[in-house]
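Friendly challenge for the regulars: who can give me the structure tokens for this chain first? No prize, just bragging rights.
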Amino acid sequence: MLTQDATILIIPGLGNSGPDHWQSRWEAKLSGARRVEQADWEHPKAVEWTSRIAEEVAKAEKPVILIAHSLGVIAAVHAAQDMAANNAGDKIVGGFFVAPPADRVMEQHSAIDPQFVPAPTAPLNFPSVLIASRDDPFSMFRESEDMAYAWGAAIADAGFSGHINVASGHGPWPEGLMRFAGFLKKL
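First reply, four minutes later:
Bragging rights claimed.
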């Protein structure tokens, strides 16, 4: 699949993705990409975030590919599974998920709505890949593997890459873009 043949939804996590974050750079670079805007990036509410994702999927006129980071992954998977349960998720054809937080981390973070927990555990009805770091402060690699297994996602080992964000040195993240291109070829 080519990017021009899809609607690519960029789904940031807590705090949004700033201008130097790889998601913002990809949004500017990839044709058909747009960010799912949230009303409150600092105090996310699960129902509001998942509803916004579902709205953007419903508006899409082309097949949808989700590119989500951190808490955005959890929101995207909740939304996708809710839509699938209501026979409305057939527009989603792929998910590229990066560094989702573990339940234990979400439970401890006071700004995160407890309704995000637990992370969904039902299989997704579309191909997906979960990129996980060996030293992500928000999820142990084993926890990321468990999420990938539950969702039926391929797991991609990013090595020692922190949270795969600007703070861990992943501004442009060309390796991730190459991995995304490889993922698209399989769709």
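Helices lie at 22-29, 46-59, 71-85, 103-108, 141-151, 174-185. DSSP finds six helices and six strands in the chain. Your move, everyone else.
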